[in-house]
Amino acid sequence: MASKPLITYGAVFAAVLGLFALSAFAQPSVRKPVAEAERMNGYALNDYAGFWKNPDWHFVTVRYRRDSSEMRLTYANDIAWKALLAGGTDYPEGAVFGKVGLLTQDDPSFTSSAVPAGARRYQLMIRDKVKGKDTNGWAYALFDGRGKAVAEDQDIASQACWACHALVPERGEVFSQPISMDISDTLPDPGAVPFAQAISRVEFDTVQVSTLPEKIRARLPKETETIRLVQGKLALNLFRGTIDEIRPTLAKESMRAKMPAVLMSKDGTLFSVVHAVAGVKSCALSGGGQGVTVNAFYTTGIVPGRESLIAEHQYCDKQ
Ligand code: HEC
Hints:
With 319 residues, the protein is α+β, with helices and mostly antiparallel strands. The protein has helices spanning 9-26, 34-37, 78-85, 154-165, 214-217, 233-236, 240-245, 247-257, and strands at residues 39-40, 43-44, 58-65, 70-76, 96-107, 110-127, 138-143, 204-208, 226-230, 261-264, 271-275, 282-284, 290-300, 309-317. It has eight helices and 14 strands.
């Protein structure tokens, strides 16, 4: 794999799950009833369990994140699929997208090939104008590998899901586009850009380092004067998932602008910082060629009443 993490995502994931388990054990009196704990925005994974093997659903696409070695498979129910093929921007009630995220690791018997490895999570977007009334008609739900809702604060998480999905309004706030695996006489142009608007939707502004909290400043190389800071709705609505999802976008911006790129909550308690510039070290990409060493640090393991933990991650990324 291209990535050589200092802390593997499996370890971070396990640590976070462990913290959840500990806090649930320590405070039995505040534990929610099981049915409620398994729901987010009124939806349980059980409502759509097995969507990934349901013959009435359609496989939409697969995505892979180089930095975290996570594979994502996205499916649509029939209502969502028809609207997607029609280029829908206003999905009808009952349209559902389901996504499965799988961590991967090298197959020990043949390390050129990565295999799904243990941890998985599930995400749903359900067109429901009542349950999704505060998030533009989509009810969002996130579950761990056991099918339990994992968001620490469901309202904050829902707003954060929406803040990112709202980056693609012309696709009805749905990122995935169907891939074709059909046999074809015309080979795809390798330089073709899959989406009509091949620009990043995340907005940045250049900001003085002196305006950042000390815990971020202290970790940046001394000579850094300015950084690129994420603006807009995305920065105002953060949850753990955003911190994680944004990293490759920050890496690209850091390489482009030649300064660190930062996503930070207003009060500075949650952040993701990516630095692909200082001490630009070239590194060997596993698929061949040279890449850029990317340094990232970000808040994780959010426990109420305690400072967030800060994880660090270094990997080799394409320029
Ligand atoms: C920082 C951006 C970001 C955040 C936050 C985010 N998503 Fe997504 N989501 C994406 C991207 C990008 C995709 C496309 C597939 C991929 O890359 O995994 C996606 C895909 C999906 C899909 C498949 C349909 C589609 O739009 O492609 C579902 C379902 C989904 N997300 C649910 C959620 C839920 C639930 C949350 C909140 C708990 C959430 N997302 C938060 C960026 C985000």
